[in-house]
Request: fold
Amino acid sequence: MKNKWYLIVALLIVSALALAACGGSAGEPTTAPVEEPVVDQTEEPMEEPTEEPTEAPVEEEPTEAPGEEDAVEPAAEEETDGPLEEVLTECAPSDERLVVWADETRSQLMVDLGDDFLAEYGVCLEVTQIGFGDIRDRVKIVAPAGEGPDVFIGAHDWLGELVINGLLAPVDLAGLEDQFVEVGLEGCSYNGELYCMPYAIENVAFVYNPELVPEPPQTWDEVRDIAIALEDAGEVDNGYIIQQNDPYHLFPLMTAYGGYVFGLTETGYDPTDVGIDSEGTIAAIEWLDQMAEEGHIPPGVDFDIMHESFENGSAAMMVTGPWALPRLRESGVPYAVTNIPSGTQEAQPFVGVQGFMINAFSEQQLLANIFLTEFVATEEVMQQLFEAGGRPVAYRPVFESIEDEDIAAFAAAGENGLPMPAIPEMSAVWSSWGDAQQLVITQEEEPEAAFSNAAEQIRNAIESAGG
Reply:
């Protein structure tokens, strides 16, 4: 009897173990394998990136000039909070089309040309609105895949990167060259070839308070004399004020004494000829050094401090651009705009150019040229572009009839200006150049030492990037 009991217990234990080995009770489902999520393959494939130029690293710089953190600058600056891309006019799948990419400020003007373009050529104009700062990056991605725009708006200092990487087709103005201001054509050219149709230009000018400075200075020596007189009379803290570590605004002072960044040839800027330590540059910086040493130029000035000082009357003269007009007008301070003072020669500010570019991978390049020369290059459209962007237009018939006195004065100050270099080597310049300026204003280094060191750093950076 006892043995039978043990036998029953043993059978129960074996049964329990067998049940456990089979995965538990019959009423409990086994766990199903987790499936991998299905990946949506409809997204366009990424192309191999276009090889970067070997001459120098290309920085993703905004068209806003260095040192103008808060300025609404080179027409490249109108960022939007909306979607990255928004198609404003869609064409039917069967339509022949010309695709145009433009930023928020100019996209609607392109839409308005659609009906006339369709009536004339039977081609649908498809306009996509993209933030200005995103256009270049998107073109670099989609153009090599045969997608994206046929025509797009951009800044001239994109040319070096885009041309070297084979992303731009030359623009043929079909005999309309004399309808555009010379500096606009120069800015849109790379290695002697035109790669955009200019529509706007911008540059800095000399701005002064006419209640404190009845007659604008014609030379930088006069700027110094006026500053000393105003400060000695207790009328201002600083007769003239300038941002430190801001080569963009420093450049016209350099050119007034014969200084330069890169030598200029018939085909464009020569990166082997660095002029940051040239005789003219050093002469200009010695003027700056004297002003700082005598206490007329304070250290630690940025864009806002410079403008606040001018707007509250504690500074009487400065160099700034048309992007500052809204705040100047709102402040109520008396101001006037004139040409940059001369030194040993006429000053030349940097000029930024905005233009229409043609995708080198477009199958509609001929039609794109026709669109630019017959539909955009007209007084009516260029006038609208001017009114929308608030920058001097590069189209001569409109340029010569600007009624806004301030904009006209900025335009006059830039007529002899130099297009900001679009060569890739320019990215090696800004940092060392700005640091040298700051070292002089803060009186930490003498002009020749500071700018000779900067020039050496720039040459080394260019040489290193070139291989």
